[in-house]
Amino acid sequence: MKYVLVTGGVVSGLGKGVTASSIGVLLKACGLRVTSIKIDPYLNTDAGTMSPFEHGEVFVLDDGGEVDLDLGNYERFLDIKLTRDNNITTGKIYQAVIDKERRGDYLGKTVQVVPHITNEIQEWIERVAMNPVDGTDKPADVCVIELGGTIGKNGILHHLHNNTAILGAGDIESMPFIEALGQFSYRVGAGNFCLVHVSLVPVLNVVGEQKTKPTQHSVRGLRGLGLMPDILACRSTKPLEENVKLKLSQFCQVPVSNIVNLHDVTNIWHIPLLLRDQRAHEAILRVLGLWCVGKVSQEPKLSEWTERGSKFDKLKSPVRIAMVGKYTGISDSYLSILKALLHASVALDRKLVVDWVPSCDLEDSAAKETPDAYEKAWDLLKGANGVLVPGGFGDRGVQGKILAAKYAREKNVPYLGICLGMQIAVIEYARSVMNLCGANSTEFDPATKTPCVIFMPEGSTTHMGATMRLGSRRTFFQVNNCKSAKLYANANYVDERHRHRYEVNPDMVSEFEKAGLSFVGRDESGRRMEIIELPAHRFFVGTQFHPEFNSRPGKPSPLFLGLIAASSGQLEHLLQRSSGTVSSPSRCINRHRSCQVQ
Question: Is 548 a catalytic residue?
Answer without folding.
Answer: yes
